[in-house]
Amino acid sequence: MKKILYPHQEAGVRYVVNGGSALWMQMRTGKTLTTIRSIQALLKRRIYLPFPVLIVCPKSVMETWRSELVGDGVPSENIQIVDGPKVKRKGMLRHLKWFNVCNYEMLESYDVLAEDFKFIVYDESVRIGNYSSKVTKYVTRRYDKTKRYLALSGAPASESSLQLFPQYMAIQGNFMGYSAYADYLEDHWRYIERSYTWKPRSKKHLEDVQKYNHDTGYCITMKDVGLGSEKLYSIRNIPANKKQLELLELTKTLSFYRRDGKDIEFNPLTRTTFEQMIAAGMNPYEGNKLISDAKIKDVIQYYLDNKEPLLILSRFKSLIGETVKLFEKNKIRTRYIDGDVEVPEREEIRAAFMNGYVDVVVAQVKTVKMGLDFSRATTIFYLSNSFSQDDRAQSEERATHVKKTDPVQIIDTCTEGTMDSMVVELLRNKQEVSTAYIQKEMLK
User: Fold this and answer.
1) What is the DSSP annotation of 209-222?
2) Is the torsion defined by CA of 303, 347, 322, 390 positive or negative?
3) Among residues 2, 14, 55, 64, which is most buried (max CB within 10 A)?
4) Helices (H), 229-372
5) Cα gap 327→171, rounded to integer Å
6) CA-to-CA distance for 267 and 262, rounded, in angstroms?
7) Preceding amide of 52 cis, omega within 30
């Protein structure tokens, strides 16, 4: 039986059927299902023949698309997951199906857009929002006004207007290289400074961008539809041990560090990464050897006290391994996901967690930030954070769901006297750490 759409999803279908091309739907509000039903509605109402459809998405969510399509009644024989090595010859996707799913890395390599697709979906369209990337240049070069395009983004327009605008312009074929694009913005919209960062010239200009995004796209947040889980944020402070304090002081004074027998000069970003690794409990000068398990033991104690399913996230793979060892030592049913875990196994781990066979999943932030549902989790622990606000925002949504109303605890474990608390502050203020933290350090 087909899933029943929520009213906001039905409104999204009407938007696409009537010619809309940008679904700005916050993560977990069902933009994938809304897209599938929109394509089916176009065919059913004889408005536009959408097949064959091309869905372009990050590699990590390709199987999610297959699952959603099959779950909504599309026969599996009408779905093709196109893996680069399996394409027989460059520039040719053989035997096109109704729905064809590929990743962004394939687009230009195999000239995918040269094929006769009628409806093209760009999931996580932030990948075509950078005017200098090869992917964006290829997408705009292959733009065809006779075809229909749909951009999907989980970032609400009210929060990420300056990110959404270039994504929308890309599917209109309007990226023309930096200089020409800057001129276009100044001539037509007049709210972006001529610089290499996107900044509104005034509050009024930002409001203009927001209005444009709302007028041209279908914008929905969890708050708009009164669904989803409330997020409750807190910080647990952990004392630094003597070894950590010594290494932090050393990192501030060194100009070089040694790796693979070579002296490598510190740059500001590398220095901050080393500081973060030390704060997380690892020694980056000795193969990321664990020098403090205080954060891990604190999470274990939290689990033993509450006995609730947990999702534990870390930026660093080596910390994930040490965390799993300690949890298993305490006889807690635990699995892990990092970049080395293949997509089918990630799905198997997700299913085991959601069905109650696993109580704790320890994962790398970048690996699980998209396409995986861990909404059984009542709490997310961050042992270390990615420097990307996008990574943080998307990973937080793993424990939320449109049908889930119980609050989700978002807990950051911060080592006292380190950069941990500043990273959390910057991420919660929706800033990219790599730039903002370095600027703060330079002002000291």
Assistant:
1) HHHHHHHHSEEE-H
2) negative
3) 55
4) 242-253, 268-280, 294-306, 317-329, 343-354, 365-368
5) 47
6) 15
7) yes
User: Above 60 in pLDDT, residue 179?
Assistant: no
Q: Is the pLDDT of residue 421 over 60?
A: yes
* C-beta contacts of 104-111 below 8 A and 24+ residues apart: 104/56, 104/57, 104/58, 104/135, 105/59, 106/82, 107/56, 107/135, 107/138, 107/139, 108/134, 108/135, 108/138, 109/84, 110/84
Q: Which distant-in-sequence residues (6+ apart) come within 8 Å of 257 by Cβ?
A: 263, 264, 266, 270, 274, 284, 285
Question: What Å distances lie between residue 350 and 30, 303, 322, 361, 398, CA to CA?
Answer: 18, 19, 20, 8, 11
Region 73-96 average pLDDT:
72
Helices and strands in the chain: count of H runs, count of E runs: 18, 17
Tens of pLDDT, residue by residue over 122-154, are: 998 888 877 778 898 899 889 998 999 999 988
Mean pLDDT for 322-347 is: 92
Which of 246 and 432 is assigned the larger pLDDT? 246
Classify residue 81 by burial, with Cβ atoms within 10 Å: 0-12, 13-18, 19+.
Answer: middle
Give the position of tokens 């510190």.
266
Residue 83 corresponds to which amino acid? D
Mean pLDDT across the chain: 83
- The pair phi, psi for residue 89, each rounded to 5°, is -150, 150
CA distance 18 to 96: 26
Helix or strand or coil: residue 274?
helix
DSSP sequence for 187-237: HHT--B-SSSS--BSSHHHHHHHHHHHHHHSEEE-HHHHT-SPPEEEEEEE
Per-residue confidence (pLDDT) for residue 91, from 0 to 100:
44
Please compute the mean of the pLDDT values over residues 80-106 and round it to a whole number. 74
How many other CB atoms sit within 10 Å of the CB of residue 313? 28
Give the amino acid at 300: I
Q: Are 5 and 33 in contact (CB under 8 A)?
A: yes
d(Cα 204, Cα 200) in Å, to the nearest integer? Answer: 8
